[in-house]
Please model this.
Amino acid sequence: MSTEAPEITKQLLTPPRVRRAWYILCRSDELGKAPIPRTLFGDPIVLFRDAEGTAGALVDRCPHRSVPLSGGDVVQGTLRCPYHGWRFAPDGACVHIPALIGLSDRAVHAATAYPVRERQGYIWCWADPTSPPQTEPWSFRLSSEPGYTVVQREVRAQATIHAVAENALDVPHTAFLHGGLFRNDADRQPIQCVVQRYADHVECEYVGESRPEGIVGRLLSPSGGVVTHFDRFYLPSIVEVEYRIGDENHILVNAALTPADDFDTVLHAVVAVRTRVPGWLLRPLVMPFALRIFGQDAKILAQQTEIMHRFEEQRFVSTELDLLGPHILKLLQRAERDDLGDLQRPPTRREITMLV
Ligand code: FES
Ligand SMILES: [Fe+2]
Model:
């Protein structure tokens, strides 16, 4: 194994906030006739649908007297404040003020609107209402490909977006925290890891891995086979874990992370699976394990957050086995500063051997 000086990162407790980016606020089917409240970086947002069903997102604060608009209702496709009944369109325009003779001053009385997109069953919001979107939301691969079973699920962790992304892509903890479910601590094998760091994403390929011997691996591929395994993080909030086991088994775990607050992250997972095990059987077999694994992760992440707050700092001492986490933090910090440089520049490449 190569040796590198330990990397020590220490910073104050304000995690990077990448605001010029799209984040999922809810599933499409969660937003019906009633407005619903959400937060992004702790800021309150209200979502509602207009008369055509188009989703809108406003700062959840009535411009009149600052009450939450999410306590109101939707009338003729406009969001009505519960206090004096001002009504707002999805672009924030104040379209009605009860008892006022004449028109409202649309600019002065308007609520602040966030750009919104509805794609693949999710409602996305651009987190900076002061700048127009420069990109489009992430699109989930394979979610409508024939032969794939797709499972969507939301889970939540009291941790930073960085901690959740690192955890989702961190291999060394799986044999330990989730011992027996994926891998076993006592039964490790050396594999080659190739990390490629790009300007806006980072990828690790694991070469020479055999099928994980834990319960989840056996369920997905009873006959074993050669494993191709990639872990990826894309700015600002996408994690991807891809496994191919043998010729026919393909598992793509995609998750979009939403920073509801600095230490409160919602993970919207879209898992696409193609295996010989039929979809109707796979879901009840795998879901309890997936939820148990995530429960273990959420618990340890909440403990990590508590200790970070107690010591009022984020202090991490890393080794070369922390393949992705330190770089994910750098990417988030650069994105927050809008300092990604040339996105086309070639990646830097690193290879290490790890016992997994
Ligand atoms: S506070 Fe909203 S209408 Fe008065
Ligand atoms: Fe985990």
Notes: The pocket of FE2/S2 (inorganic) cluster (ligand 1) is lined by residues 62, 64-65, 67, 81, 83-86 (CB under 6 Å).
